[in-house]
Amino acid sequence: MPNMSKPASDASRRRFVEDVAARLTPWGMQPTLARLYGYLLLSAEPVDLDAIAADLDMAKSSASVAARELVKYGLASLHKERGSKRVRYGASERYSGFLVAQATLLGDLGHLVQDQADAVAEGRVLRRLEHLSSFFLKMEATIRHRIDELTEEAIREGLVEEPSP
């Protein structure tokens, strides 16, 4: 893993990548994406797909799919080279994309339960479903609100740029 920013042993860097993956996969992130994200977090400069595939011992096609997914979540950024089809990927300065996706799933489940509770339950079970729906919808709103607060804080501190309109 030659592109890493701090001189550390290859074993330490590999362990970090695997530890990141071990913590993100239970949240539903595919292992390849999670490993690539851990790798990009340690990369001082954007990395091309050949280096990613070699360093993470994966097929270039798998690296490409994983990198595009990380860009979609906002966890990686795409860097194009002028006059070339070649692209490189780096860690994003924004970290919330995957959590926003998780919050959206909570909200979707909350709305599903809310919309169907009356048709499928009554009494104590209905009250449970109503509480569950409320819980999921409030969790979604709380996560989104806190992400907005943290994003504004990062912009004020100059850690990230304000998003373009």
What composes the largest sheet? 3 strands, antiparallel
User: How many DSSP helices?
Assistant: 6
- DSSP strand tally: 3
**How much strand?**
5-15%
Secondary-structure element string: HHEHHEEHH
Uncertain regions spanning at least 5 consecutive residues: none
Order of adjacent strands in the largest pleated sheet: 1-3-2
Shape: elongated
User: End-to-end distance, in Å?
Assistant: 37 Å
**Which class best fits the helix and strand makeup?**
mainly alpha
Counting copies of identical and different chains, the oligomeric state is: single chain
Overall mean confidence score, pLDDT: 92
Helix content range: 55-70%
Please give the radius of gyration in angstroms.
20 Å
